[in-house]
């Protein structure tokens, strides 16, 4: 089995995952193969085990967002089964009544997520803009002082290069933070549901 066959089989075994999560998982292991190089392809396959075994490990990972969402669905169903029609009506009324409070919290969380994403993008764009500005300044100085022009142009190119080099790590950090914020909110919701289920009994 080669790399392409392994990844194809892994993708097939991960069909239970949402498409974006499945693609992200396959991409991660594709990068792993790439980093190891073609010469170490079989060594990577040996260390990972069979695609079926790896898929089983991924699907049973209790740290994924999909796992937390599935857990939430189960908690909601469990609570609904324990509530009487009158309690259901009361729950709907309370949800509507408290919507300004939890709506504000949700908007706050969304603001934090968007803020983190924007901060990551803006920091990278700032490097690129600064680099382009220095390149333009270097071009303006080329007729007057060549040494200053070269320093400005070199610094500009360096800043643009840094932005491109940092793009993947910064985006990985941004999505890591966003993922854990979402997971934290889902886990808090699950705890509240768990307590509701106990009271309903």
Topology:
Blueprint: H1 3-13, H2 19-36, H3 41-48, H4 51-59, H5 65-82, H6 85-97, H7 99-141, H8 146-200
Description of the molecule:
There is one protein chain. The longest helix has 55 residues, at 146-200. This protein starts with a helix and ends with a helix. The protein is built from eight helices and no strands. The protein has helices spanning 3-13, 19-36, 41-48, 51-59, 65-82, 85-97, 99-141, 146-200. With 201 residues, it is mostly helical. It is flat. Helix 1 runs antiparallel to helix 2. Helix content is 87%, strand content 0%.
Name the helicity range: over 70%
**Poorly predicted parts:** 195-201
**How many distinct helices?**
8
Q: What class, by secondary structure content?
A: mainly alpha
- Radius of gyration of CA atoms, rounded to a whole number: 25 Å
SSE pattern:
HHHHHHHH
Biggest β-sheet strands, sense, barrel: none
The fraction of residues in strands falls at under 5%
Shape: flat
How far apart the termini lie comes to 53 Å
**Overall pLDDT level:** 77
**How many distinct beta strands?**
0
